[in-house]
Amino acid sequence: MCASEISTVKTIAQINDETRNFILVGVVIAKSDPRYFSGHPKGRGPFEADTTTADTSHETARGVLTLTLRDSNRDTINCTVWGKADTIIHYDGAFAIGDVIDVNRPQVAASMFGRSEQYSPTVTSPYCLTVNDQTVQGAQITRHDGPAQELQRFRALLRVPLAQPGETIPLADIVASGSGCNGETFNVLVVVRAVRAKRDVRVARSNQVKTFREVILMDGSHGGVLMKLWSDSYIRWSEQWVPLKTTLLIVDARAEFNAYYKTICLAVDRKTIITQDPAVPQLASLLNHARSIPTQEIDVVCSLASVDR
């Protein structure tokens, strides 16, 4: 690599249309599930080898993954990673929400021209990043190897709220709207009241088995609203959530009317960002309210985890 190609470290705020050959260091605050494209015939598994063409094999299948990054209290950006299926599988397993990473030699584009942005979380940067090792040599994502103090600074950003409490809406207002708010997105500040066991369901359209988890949320206005998690990343993360102790600031939670429960529920989709235990002054009063719930009511809610529906 010649001197002119040496990568320099840039911050999100320093990125512009002319930025090239740089490294961005950031903490992952949101992560999509990977998607794969192999051109496999209908009825064949996405990585099942095709005896007629090599293009449908695991080695030639490609995938995409989006990470949302933050490097300061103010700045966030989306990074879309394209690569062979093996590469995307590696990234998906190697990096999780809360990890500090180096984005090496990404391409920069204005967000308004990025097709993936409409399906990604809303960010502050007017630009988006793309990592594709087939178009830029050396483009890759690696774990950041920095001093403990630097890593601690980045991880502290995980608690910085992306929306202020005044920009949230009470759960009771969402429930009261009923099916009228179906499909809309809201910001909510809540306490985790119960975390139900993972369940599998077969999707009729694709005949694939999907895993999901239901989490019960509460705030000062409502005792329990169900939120459904379909993303593997969020399902794994939710295993760390402690009922009546973990608080969540959820940005762009999607409201959806659940015909089974006959009520409005919340869902996490590809635009949602969750901040665990956000650094906001309302946290103490919210937790105090959660602790004031009579024990027998808590037992009823938590027992839903074992109900076979």
Automatic annotation (TrEMBL):
GO biological process: resolution of meiotic recombination intermediates
InterPro entries documented for this protein: MEIOB (IPR052469), NA-bd_OB-fold (IPR012340), OB_MEIOB_N (IPR056880)
PANTHER family to which the protein is assigned, alphabetical: CELL DIVISION CONTROL PROTEIN 24 OB DOMAIN-CONTAINING PROTEIN-RELATED
Taxonomic lineage: Eukaryota, Metazoa, Ecdysozoa, Arthropoda, Hexapoda
Domain of life: Eukaryota
UniProt keyword DNA-binding present: yes
Keyword DNA-binding assigned: yes
Protein name: MEIOB-like N-terminal domain-containing protein
Annotated signal sequence range: none
GO MF terms, alphabetically ordered: single-stranded DNA 3'-5' DNA exonuclease activity; single-stranded DNA binding
